[in-house]
Amino acid sequence: MPEPNLPRRRGLKVAARTGQEIALKNAPASATPAAALLRDSLVWDHHTCMPLRPDDTSFLPQLARHKAAGFDAVTVNVGFGDMGPEPHLRMLAALRRWLGERPDAYVLVETADDIERARATDRLAVGFDIEGANAIGDDLGLVQRYYDLGVRWMLLAYNQGNRVSGGCQEEDGGLTPLGRALIAEMERVGMQLCLSHTGHRTVRDALAVATRPVIFSHSNCAALHAHPRNIPDELIRACAATGGVVGINGVGIFLGRNDISPQTYARHVDHVVQLVGPAHASIALDYVFDIGELDEYMRTKQHTFPPGLGYELGARFMPPEEIGEIVATLQSWGYAEADLKAILGGNLMRLARTVWKPLSGRPLAEPVVG
Questions:
Q1: Which one of 35, 71, 115, 199 has the lowest number of neighbouring Cβ atoms within 10 Å?
Q2: Minimal CA–CA distance to 291: which of 316, 326, 274?
Q3: Residue 27 to residue 36: CA distance in whole angstroms
Q4: Distance of alpha carbon 283 from its chain centroid, rounded?
Q5: Cβ(133)–Cβ(159) below 8 Å
Q6: d(CA 251, CA 238)
Q7: Which residues of 214-224 are buried (b: 16+ CB within 10 A; e: fewer)?
């Protein structure tokens, strides 16, 4: 497969390639240019998945893998699909409690400054996301509640339609009146609107009413691999036109042929960059820590993970430890330091400072974990 075009045609700052690259290839990982860039950059994984069992914290210590790999911030999922408000609130309560008991290692994200503070003190900043508006039922007031508890982006739908929108794996009826009201409330509160997993008709409807930058938090490029979960160039351009960002996920069946190599991942990043520039790409590995739980979901939720779309191939995910190889691949293709810093976390920080708003100021009582 030929090497992708260098990003010169997007007018990027292209790093000079030197003969030292050959010698550095065999250098210790901590001494490579990729490792040096990671140390000097804000590095943010915008979507990862811990087990959705509020009474089981056995996997949570593995969040330390993100910090060890070079990440400064991570956004953790707290629910998806047809889960209603109660399981989301219970999961948030459990995660906030566990993280709050470990202030030497973690910072709960409320503001963009919290992420900078975590990085400056060698801790991992942790925020939350929700995959699908079933989390609010028909109560728009829950948007503020979730935001105050640390949720910073939410999908409209997760593969299947709901009362606000259509999903990407079924006939899409478009954005509903409740969906329009939800977008307005998210913008009022400061929660980022995410259009991953959402039907393309709904995406176009949402783009027509949104007044703030939107994101595809973890969506790959249909031009490189056709799949209902991936998005066409038209929607990548439309997202960028709002000032938003497309995060590339590390899921093998969405990258193509269940291939989770750093090179294949980098090609999806590069496609977004070539199309709309480095200011509109980010990292969202979508790494699932408990594969057993996911296997059970795929067995019992075939309406969400239907046969024939690759789910039956078995889950393969890009682990956080591969971030150095992703960076090294992009460096070898001529990406400049400033552009890589934007992709690694700078673009997401720009959106945080643009979209997020102060908390409501109301007293915050944690949901009770029964």
A1: 35
A2: 316
A3: 12
A4: 7
A5: no
A6: 23
A7: bbbbbbbbbeb
- Single-letter amino acid, residue 47: H
Q: Report the chain's terminal Cα–Cα distance, integer Å.
A: 54
Lookup result for tokens 């790999």? 69
Question: Measured between alpha carbons, how far is residue 36 from residues 67, 120, 315, 328, 369 in Å?
Answer: 15, 16, 31, 11, 42
What are φ and ψ of residue 295, in 5° steps?
Answer: -60, -40
Task: Please give the pLDDT value at position 29.
Answer: 61
- pTM of the predicted model as reported, rounded to 2 decimal places: 0.90
- pLDDT number for residue 13: 41
Q: How is residue 95 written in tokens?
A: 């995660």
Give residue 133's region: left, alpha or beta (phi > 0; psi -120 to 50): alpha
Q: What is the pLDDT of residues 324-342, one digit of tens each?
A: 999 999 999 999 999 999 9
The H or E element containing residue 152 is strand 151-155
With a pLDDT cut of 70, the percent of the chain lying above it is 89
Strand partners, 205: none
Amino acid at 228: P
Query: CA–CA separation, 258 vs 362, rounded Å?
Result: 46
Could you give the CA distance from residue 254 to residue 286 in angstroms, rounded to a whole number?
Answer: 11
The CA distance from 320 to 287, in Å, is 7
What ranges make up the beta strands (E) of the chain? 44-49, 73-80, 106-108, 124-131, 151-155, 192-194, 215-216, 245-248, 281-283, 287-288
Maximum Cα interatomic distance, the chain, rounded to a whole number of Å = 61
- The tens digit of pLDDT for each residue in 157-171 reads 999 999 999 999 899
- C-alpha 124/C-alpha 67 separation (Å) is 6
Spans in the chain with pLDDT lower than 70: 1-30, 311, 362-370
